[in-house]
Amino acid sequence: MGFLSNRDEPRKDKEVLIQELLAHRERLYRTSLFLSKGNTDRAREVFQETMLAACQSLGRYRGRASFYTYLYRILLNTHYRFLRQERRRKDVPLDTVERFLGAKGNNPLEEMVATERRESLYQAIMSLPPKSQVVVLLRHLEGLSYEEIAKHLSIPLGTVRSRLSTARGILSRILKKPNF
Amino acid sequence: MKRKRKCFFWPVVDTFLEKGTKKSLEELVGKHMEDCQSCRQRFDQERRISLLLADLFVEYREVEVPVVNLEPQTVRIERRGFGWLDFPKKPVWVTAGLLASFFLIYFSFFRFGQPNRPAAVSEKPGCLETKSEQPASPHPSLSPTRERIKVRGKGDKMFTQQEETGSAGEGAAFWVWFDRGVSLVGFPQEVRALSQSPGPDWTDKSR
């Protein structure tokens, strides 16, 4: 019955994977907060769901990609699931309403322009391919160096450079619009 | 659209962006960018994107991470679904199994052009009549069966069965079909003989 036990790589121990998961906790929450556009309640829900889903599917991790990439993919899937549910219910979080009304800022007009700019940038980042997206987030949100990103994602340094360059190229093309 | 020509200094600018501001590198880049328009544009663009991204992400830097309880008691860290089915090339094996079972059923029950009947005696054109080889039975319902087989064409035969002594009707037709089906599977001879009997006469009111 060799075909039953034929795996790509020997699996890591579950305890080790849980330790790795806990090590990536902060990073995942920050990314979740970014994906939720700063809505803390939603970010917490997405984060919680991601952690649970990651825990339950630890046995399915085959080690082809780095563990962070695996977790990031689960986080993205959870985020998209929440988005679909919100669209179905047509929910608008209160935080978003406050932001658009400029309740937190001093000058409503400035706040509105800043919010629009932030929204465009958010959409630009979300339009990137997931591989470039994760590199951009690790670089600019987490502030990791190129070497650290390469180590985290288990990819060569040149790949990190090229993915970041691709992402910047796409972002610069999007941000050439007149409101930027 | 004409593509911009790359400056040989671009990798240095990239390194500058990657490593951050180093005194020596800053001087070198600054000196070069006084003359090179291409590098200056590229540097300004990259720096602008970096600043925008930094501005966007600054509010997410200082956050309090919620506590998640990942104790084994609270989270069931088990593989969901059927563990015994979780092996590679699962769809291939499942598809092969389904196909194999389909062909087995198909060729065992519907063997066209191979009637599993003894030699027939024609009574009228287009019809064959056969007599089963069972011994005489004391009960009228177990008496020898007479079957009439309609021959429609070459290789395409429709079997109907009529009885002279009893009226098993649809039950008898089923047993003919069943007998033809199970003959390939290999039922014992006794079972086959039983299957050829028409069964009790349910219309007999004396019972």
What does this structure look like?
The complex is a heterodimer of chains A (180) and B (207). By secondary structure, chain A is mostly helical. Helices cover 70% and strands 0% of the residues of chain A. Chain A has nine helices and no strands. Chain A has helices at 14-23, 25-35, 40-56, 67-89, 94-101, 108-126, 130-141, 146-153, 157-174. The longest helix of chain A has 23 residues, at 67-89. Chain A is globular. Mean pLDDT of chain A is 79; it is low at 1-9. Chain B has 207 residues and is α+β, with helices and mostly antiparallel strands. Chain B is built from six helices and four strands, in the order H-H-H-H-E-E-E-E-H-H. In chain B, strands 1-2-3-4 form a four-stranded antiparallel β-sheet, with no helix packed on it. The longest helix of chain B is centred in the N-terminal third of the chain and has 25 residues, at 37-61. The radius of gyration of chain B is 43 Å and the shape is rod-shaped. Mean pLDDT of chain B is 64; it is low at 119-123 and 143-166. Chain A binds chain B through residues 3-7, 14, 18, 21-22, 25-26, 29-30, 33-34, 38, 44, 47-48, 51-52, 55-60, 117-118, 121-122, 136, 140-141, 143, 145-146, 161, 165, 168, 171-172, 175, 180, and chain B through 14, 18, 45-46, 48-50, 52-54, 56-57, 59-61, 63, 65-66, 68, 70, 75-80, 87-89.
